[in-house]
Design goal:
The complex is a heterodimer. By secondary structure, chain A is mainly α. Chain A has one domain: Orthogonal Bundle (Cytochrome-c3 Hydrogenase, chain B). Helices cover about 50% and strands about 10% of the residues of chain A. In chain A, the strands form three sheets. In chain A, strands 1-2-3 form a three-stranded antiparallel beta sheet. Chain A has a three-stranded antiparallel beta sheet with strand order 6-7-8. A two-stranded antiparallel ribbon of chain A has the order 4-5. In chain A, a hairpin with a 2-residue loop joins strand 2 and strand 3. In chain A, helix 5 runs antiparallel to helix 6 and helix 5 packs antiparallel against helix 12. Chain A is globular and about 110 Å long. Chain B is of the alpha/beta class. Chain B is elongated, with a radius of gyration of 18 Å. Chain B has four helices and seven strands. The relative contact order of chain B is 0.12. Helix content of chain B is about 20%, strand content about 25%. Classes of the chains: A mainly alpha, B alpha/beta. At the A-B interface, helix 9, strand 6, strand 7, strand 8 and helix 15 of A face strand 3 and helix 3 of B.
């Protein structure tokens, strides 16, 4: 039948019996919407295919891999030391914590104990990185859902810390400051005084961020009761970090595995109640206060003098100043980077509480200088696994909130 | 002296249990492929085990072994605070293993990644598709050991590179 005929038959009304006319009913169907891969709220390159009924999400299918660089395969081609800069590029806004997680895994494999001062330095920098991560998260999450001002405030303060990183290791984002068995260089007096000044400056600023949001009706409407997940489901999906604690599960590896200098510090782990986006926001804000507390305690307790690198010449690097003046140290450095150390055969898993969640490294060694297999347990990837479950029934605009609430970074998600 | 968790698994599944290794404080239990799903169910449901949290799913390729692939699950318990690594071996000729998505929903994406990277299929998986590589990628599975570690394609046309190798 031709289109025109169809039209006449459908609308044709018998003049004798006008009540028998059948009006065409409105056609309803599910709409398929491609969100991304180029979308500012996806924090990288992520596509999500959304099945919609009106404006409600019926099903969402994340399509990932746009930033897949084969980091796990690359790891098999380099020595353990050579992999550290690759970890910077996983979660590229929080490189320090990735370095930390990786170095801890290799130290577990090699059974290296880190000297006390180095543990404190590592913990301080890790917490500074956590503050940066949460500032970044808060700014972008608020920006994504329409509260723009907070972004300028968090990024103003984040800049101070990034400059501090710059002074510490010469890079703002891709830091590579951690080393297997210790850290690359010590704090200078200038760094210490700048950090102390920041600790006094920062807590009132967190209050300032909160003022923008706590009474903002749009913020509350878009976070309270959005993307609710029960504690049972959150655990079943393997969520971690603030995303898990928002549902009321008290699970923080800093307490539970007690690595670094954390066991010597007193801090609390904020836990949410409702498992919604607002609780996860609240947890992250509280964690910023806690991080300040941890850094203060570390600065007080840290031994004034001491080695910053474990003294295991077969594994750890020699001090940089000796590499340039002492032939043996130069050979040691050269051999460690080109051939690597001889790792014992075996396998370990070591998880670390990064600000997004549990960042873990599973390393299989068959001896020799290169890992046989290195698997990265990336929290962003695992959180994306729960995206479909958590987004069902919410509005399209909430999809943006849900990406944000996981604090995903696609570099880590796709590896 | 075996780890108490490993002992429990051996007592419950005398036929499925293969070996238990404890190294650097990590417990790794290898079970046979047919027993895998029931062991996992036991680990999840038994109150003494209580492994409610899935940490990661991974795989290792051992090309020289008779059963080439090793699939690795890592579980932890939020309440009991212990961890276990569960492993099973899969031959290349019959590259299938039971999916654990019905026990831990989080296993869905993790198993898809293992399939994508190593080519191990998961029985009863709801949506077994490639996840990181493109859907139409047909050059094999990148994390297998026979997948070239360095460049492939245009680079291979440089004869001097091939000669040196």
């Amino acid at each position: 039948m031709k289109l025109e005929d169809q039209r006449t038959t459908v609308y044709k009304v018998d003049p004798e019996h006008p009540e028998s006319a059948t009006l065409p009913t409105l056609r309803t169907e599910e709409l398929l919407l491609n969100m991304g891969p180029q979308h500012p709220s996806t924090h990288g390159v992520l596509k999500v295919v959304l099945e919609l009924e009106g404006e409600r999400l019926v099903k969402s299918t994340p399509v990932m891999g746009f930033l897949h660089r084969g980091v796990e395969k690359l790891a098999e081609d380099g020595t353990y030391h050579q992999f550290i800069p690759h970890t910077d590029r996983l979660d590229y806004v929080c490189a320090m914590y990735n370095n930390f997680a990786y170095c801890r895994a290799v130290e577990k494999l090699m059974n290296v104990t880190v000297p006390e001062r180095a543990e404190y330095l590592r913990t301080i920098v890790a917490e500074v990185q956590r503050i940066i991560g949460h500032q970044f998260w808060l700014g972008t999450q608020a920006l994504d859902i329409g509260a723009m001002t907070v972004f300028f405030y968090t990024f103003r303060d984040r800049e101070i810390l990034l400059d501090w990183f710059d002074e510490l290791c010469g890079a703002r984002l891709t830091t590579s400051w951690y080393r297997i068995g210790g850290v690359e260089r010590d704090f200078t007096p200038s760094l210490l005084s700048k950090l102390r000044a920041f600790l006094d400056y920062f807590p009132p600023k967190i209050d300032e961020y909160v003022v923008f949001l706590e009474k903002n009706r749009i913020w509350l409407a878009r976070t309270k009761g959005v993307a609710v997940i029960s504690a049972e489901d959150a655990v079943n999906f393997g969520l971690s970090g603030p995303t898990l604690r928002g549902s009321g599960v008290d699970y923080d590896l800093r307490k539970y595995e007690a690595y670094g200098a954390y066991p010597k510090c007193e801090f609390s782990v904020p836990v949410g109640k409702n498992g919604d986006t607002y609780d996860r926001y609240w947890i992250r804000v509280q964690e910023m206060y806690e991080s300040v507390k941890i850094i203060r305690q570390c600065l007080e307790q840290m031994p004034a003098e001491g080695s910053i690198m474990a003294d295991v010449p077969s594994v750890t690097l020699p001090p940089k100043e000796r590499v340039f003046t002492n032939l043996d140290s130069m050979i040691q450095q050269f051999k460690l980077f080109s051939q690597g150390f001889d790792a014992p055969p075996g396998e370990i898993y070591c998880g670390t509480e990064a600000h997004k969640g549990e960042l873990g490294f599973y390393i299989v060694s068959t001896g020799g200088g290169k890992p046989y297999r290195l698997k990265i347990r990336a929290p962003s990837f695992i959180h994306m696994g729960a995206f479909d479950f958590m987004s069902r029934g919410y509005m399209i605009a909430d999809a943006v909130t849900i990406f944000g609430t996981y604090d995903i970074v696609m570099g880590e998600c796709d590896r | 002296m075996m780890h108490p968790i490993a002992e429990r698994i051996q007592a419950e599944f005398p036929e499925g249990f293969v070996k238990a290794v404890e190294w650097r404080g990590d417990l790794a239990v290898t079970v046979s492929r047919p027993a895998l799903h029931s062991v996992a169910q036991f680990l999840h449901d038994d109150p003494r085990m209580d492994f409610d949290y899935i940490v990661h799913v991974s795989s290792v390729d051992w090309p020289d072994d008779e059963e080439r692939f090793e699939v690795v699950w890592e579980f932890s318990s939020i309440r009991k605070r212990h961890r276990i690594r569960l492993k099973t071996r899969v031959p290349e000729s019959d590259c299938v293993v039971d999916s654990l998505t019905d026990i831990w929903k989080g296993a869905n994406f993790m198993e898809r990644e293992v399939y994508d990277m190593m080519g191990i299929r998961f029985r009863n998986h709801p949506d077994l598709r490639r996840i990181l590589m493109p859907d139409d990628y047909d050059e094999g599975y990148p994390l297998r050991k026979d997948f070239p570690l360095r460049g492939k394609g245009w680079r291979d046309t440089f004869e001097f590179l091939n000669e040196r190798a």
